[in-house]
Design goal:
Helix content is about 35%, strand content about 15%. It is an alpha/beta fold and about 240 residues long.
Length: about 240
């Protein structure tokens, strides 16, 4: 099995918040997309593991991804160790993604920052032939970063126009009934469960969309220079 894109998040809902519109766009373009959540979100202030797993499955269906996996690493205790890398390596080798999407190193959440390094190093070791698993060695050639929160002022390397898919992204995010804004759910209020955070999802997407003359956009960051053979904009003339 091989997929075009593997989107990896530290917790259920990270991928959906950061690149949900991008995944919908890619699926609509015919690319195969899967999600890998590193933890089950068991350390969250709201929601049980069972609730979060159901929510993640519901959201995955609305995002049109082919499958959603969970590495069952410890929430709140992600660490870039050999043991945890070896829990991620088999997914990369089995799915053989061309592109991996994952967290940025500047994220405010400790698990997100660790996930950035953990996935980068796991992808490297997935290509090392001396490391034996049931799958053949494979290393994804491209990796791009996203930030599910709104506290990163860095200029992205690209902004994906998700205008056509933004409302569907919001519908998918509504699946996270225990985590995001939901007045009917009983639980302590957190930053992400606030109405202000929910409204900021649209505000942020509108801001990045305005930077590319679109209604809504999702920023992505590269680990290094992006190879091109056609300058962006000129491919429209082909």
């Amino acid at each position: 099995m091989s997929v075009d894109v593997l989107a990896i998040g530290a917790h259920p809902d990270d991928v959906d918040l950061g690149v949900g519109g991008t995944l919908l766009l890619l699926a609509d373009q015919g690319y195969s997309v899967c999600i890998l959540d590193l933890t089950q979100g068991e350390a969250a202030s709201r929601g049980s593991v069972d609730e979060r797993m159901r929510e993640a499955d519901d959201a995955a269906g609305l995002l049109d991804v082919e499958d959603r996996y969970n590495a069952e690493l410890p929430d709140g205790q992600l660490a870039n160790t050999t043991e945890q890398q070896m829990r991620v390596v088999p997914f990369i080798r089995a799915l053989k993604p061309t592109v991996i999407l994952c967290h940025r190193e500047s994220d405010r959440h400790p698990d997100h920052r660790v996930a950035c390094d953990l996935v980068r190093d796991a992808n490297f070791f997935a290509g090392v032939t001396s490391i034996a698993t049931d799958e053949e060695p494979y290393r994804a050639p491209y990796m791009y970063r996203y930030n599910p929160y709104f506290d990163d002022n860095a200029i992205p390397d690209m902004v994906v126009d998700v205008s056509e898919y933004f409302e569907d992204k919001l519908k998918a995010l509504e699946s996270y009934r225990s985590q995001l804004f939901n007045p009917g759910y009983e639980g302590p209020e957190t930053r992400v469960s606030s109405e202000a955070f929910w409204e900021a999802i649209t505000t942020r997407a509108a801001y990045w969309g305005s930077r590319i003359d679109a209604d809504y956009g999702e920023p992505l960051y590269a680990d290094g220079p992006l190879p091109v053979t056609v300058l962006p904009g000129l491919e429209l003339e082909e």
